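Anyone opening a protein record will find just a pair of labelled lines. A complete record is shown below as an example.
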Amino acid sequence: MNHARAAAPANPDEERIAQAAAQWIVRLSADDPAERRAAGAGFEAWKRVDPRHAAVAARMEGFIDQTRSLSGDGTSSPARAALASALDARAPGRGKPGSPGRRAAGLLVLAAALALPAALALRGPPSQWGADLRTATGEQREQVLDDGSRLTLGSGTAVNTRWSSDLRELELLDGEILVDVARDAARPFVVETAHGRIRALGTRFIVRREEHATLLTMIESRTAVQAGADTNELTVEAGERVRLSARGVERLGEVEPRATQNAFQARRLMVQDRPLPEVLDEIARHRRGLVRYEPADLESIRVSAVLPLDDTDRALQLLVDNFPGLRVRTLTPWVVLVDAAP
């Protein structure tokens, strides 16, 4: 079975918005001028209904521009260029270009091509859309919090903040954060996820939220952690890494604190003798679109490397350069296939 990784799956609402937007774009390329005008008015009204509609429409325009530039088409309208490309492609037994059957097939091709990036633009469940702090896939930024603490948000991260007179609390909904805690003896600093609670006893640590677990990496000083409903706290020291999950708190071994922090801030992936599918999963977290592969075919390839997560094309190329039996194919800017070379 093919394995596809994106920053997060689209839910039914996201797919519905993406499909609706794609259909509007297709209608804007109708042959009948009156139909185009009506579609334009309807499309503008649809975008005003919900901010997500307008966001997807903007992403689609950018995607069409990318498609046109890749194909070298110099026509003035990106939508028309994409549509013409879909309609003019010849396939044996499918009718002549411009025929009603061929045109319908072309519209479906265009709608599918548009809907994919639109769905990807809406990744993440609705609870994350309104998060207090958020980064897009491939983005990293630093935020100074109200108490002076510094928060670095990694790719595809969503965080809620809850500040009161006696508590400072972050809720990590998705992604990864580097926390540098400002001292405030009167207000404990806590990070919560679906898998547990981390209470700062010092200054600096990294928290990563995954689907079934949360990873904590201590950079400096200590934290007290508890998993799920367990009220017992475990102290984690600098240079240690633990996993919080339904199974409790598991110690994963030691890390080099300074190198780990530097790699996070420089957006570098450091791996030592890790299976290739695990490396591809991490690259996919930082890349817009899908990275598809068959895990069983690549599991035997072990990787030791430092890879640039701020340039995932280069990271994939470095893997190909170091593993001649590996093949990476970019079907579109949104879909990459990785497999063993024939």
